Amino acid sequence: MVGSDATANLSLDSQLCFSIYSASRALTGVYRELLDELDLTYPQYLVMLVLWEHDALSVKELGASLRLDSGTLSPLLRRLELRGLVRRSRTDNDERIVRVALTEDGIEARRRAEEVPQRVLCSTGLSMEQVRLLKPLLDQLTESVVSAGRDATRTQTVS
Predict the structure, then answer these.
(1) Tell me, what's the pLDDT at 1?
(2) pLDDT given at position 70
(3) Within 10 Å of residue 125's Cβ, how many Cβ atoms?
(4) In the chain, what are the domain boundaries?
(5) What is the dihedral of CA 112, 118, 123, 126, to 10 degrees?
(6) Cα separation of 114 and 129, whole Å?
(7) Angle made by CA atoms 40, 100, 95, in degrees to the nearest 5
(8) What is the pLDDT of residues 60-106, one digit of tens each?
(9) Phi then psi for 125, rounded to 5 degrees?
(10) Is the domain defined by 4-125 classed in CATH 1.10.10.10?
(11) Whole-model pTM above 0.90?
(12) Which of 54, 46, 20 is closest to 142 using CA atoms?
């Protein structure tokens, strides 16, 4: 007979990962509706957020900020470039480095996106204080899981 503790541990409702997954899907759905008005996908919006904050970055720096590899980032940048929101160029001193910068249309898109965070916050039903408490916990969770993954990879490599 399976013990009640074991059963509880394996119930869907007790899984932290499922709560985070469900919340992520729900939030992404809210963003999708709002970003349709801006003609941006959620991943494109994340790229634009970083560029609105920093203006111009190398693809490597952009990928580090978003925790995306260049294989995932390159198609996003290509679509944003085709839409005229960003411009990619190689640096003069090292052609291997590609810089991404906002165009005038990309800068203008920021103005149109300014209400998105507040509209998302309203849809969560959370207060600003609850968000201020939740975000650092989620950031800590992410860093802990990423670190554990790196440690596991190192352990597997050494074995």
Answers:
(1) 47
(2) 87
(3) 7
(4) 4-125, 126-159
(5) 160
(6) 20
(7) 145
(8) 999 999 999 989 999 999 999 999 999 999 988 888 889 999 999 99
(9) 75, 5
(10) yes
(11) no
(12) 20
- In total, the chain counts a number of residues equal to 159
pLDDT of residue 55: 82
Q: Do residues 77 and 85 touch, judged by C-beta distance below 8 A?
A: no
3-state secondary structure of 100: strand
Q: Which residue has the tokens 């990619």?
A: 88
Contact call for residues 44 and 31 (beta carbons, < 8 A) = no
pLDDT at residue number 4: 63
Positions of the chain with pLDDT under 50: 1
Q: How far apart are CA 11 and CA 21, in angstroms?
A: 15
Buried b or exposed e, range 137-157, using 16+ CB within 10 angstroms: eeeeeeeeeeeeeeeeeeeee
Ordered DSSP codes for 64-78: HHHT--HHHHHHHHH
For 55, 58, 59, 70, 106, the CA distances from 98, given in Å and listed in that order, are 14, 5, 6, 11, 18
